[in-house]
């Protein structure tokens, strides 16, 4: 595959112009279907729609007006979510930062951190995505402005004409449930217990599921003993695809036998009105469940919202889950 630095000036110009012709059509469709604010960006799909809408904004109002909105309008800037812009230089070595709302003083810098934890030349990697494919995803580590710490970031980028200068804009997401980002300090039972939400619950379950995938059944003892995975009414549990209880960090038992999360040797009548939730979890991979079970913090029955995710340990599928109790 040829590289950007070896392309002729003619071919580089042709590639850039072709990318500009393609990108607005994509952004128009994406933004017409889904206009999204920075504060609502959570997933990679959200990021892609967000960047396409930013591209469309530049096309509609021009670079200067869009620049002001990217800096000052909360629709375009919220915590770790913002639009960035970089000059498109063949190898990225002297590219200027054109747009960086978190720290405007860094705009027009030509010095980039070209090396991250994944290797050298992350800037050139972004240029290659633009040059070869007219935009797309690239992956790197970057300081999360919400936490102040470097973290894995997935960014979507598109080419743009920045007042006559070839450039690209983009935005990214710092998901805390990436395999390389499930940090103990950020994703834990205490945090979920203190501020329960579906977003935190999903992160917690996905990180627990990664532990089962990596450690198999050795992870079950960790869920019972490690305070990261149990706090108050929050704990991790596992169910097989027959609906049988496999493990739990709840810590409650009757005659030495741990209580099942729901029915089948467990607590009361079937809370799912005859629906095979294990089969549903197997089919969808990740689902929400709503049911009554014993709250270990109070010892009494309570309403619970859980997520279970399908993983495989030693070739056997298991639904790994956790939840929070609704007051």
Give the SSE layout.
Blueprint: H1 9-33, H2 44-61, H3 63-72, E1 77-78, E2 81-82, E3 84-87, E4 97-99, H4 122-133, E5 136-143, E6 150-162, E7 165-173, H5 189-194, H6 198-215, H7 218-225, E8 236-240, E9 245-248, E10 253-254, E11 257-258, H8 277-284, E12 286-295, E13 300-313, E14 316-326
Antiparallel strand pairs: 1-2, 3-4, 3-7, 5-6, 6-7, 8-9, 8-14, 10-11, 12-13, 13-14
Mean pLDDT: 83
Strands in their spatial order, largest beta sheet: 4-3-7-6-5
- What is the rounded distance between the termini? 58 Å
- Strand and helix order: HHHEEEEHEEEHHHEEEEHEEE
Uncertain stretches of 5 or more adjacent residues: 1-30
Strand content: 25-35%
Tell how many strands the DSSP assignment holds: 14
Q: State the shape.
A: elongated
Number of helices: 8
Biggest β-sheet description:
5 strands, antiparallel
Helical fraction: 25-40%
**Rg (CA only):** 24 Å
Protein structure class = alpha+beta
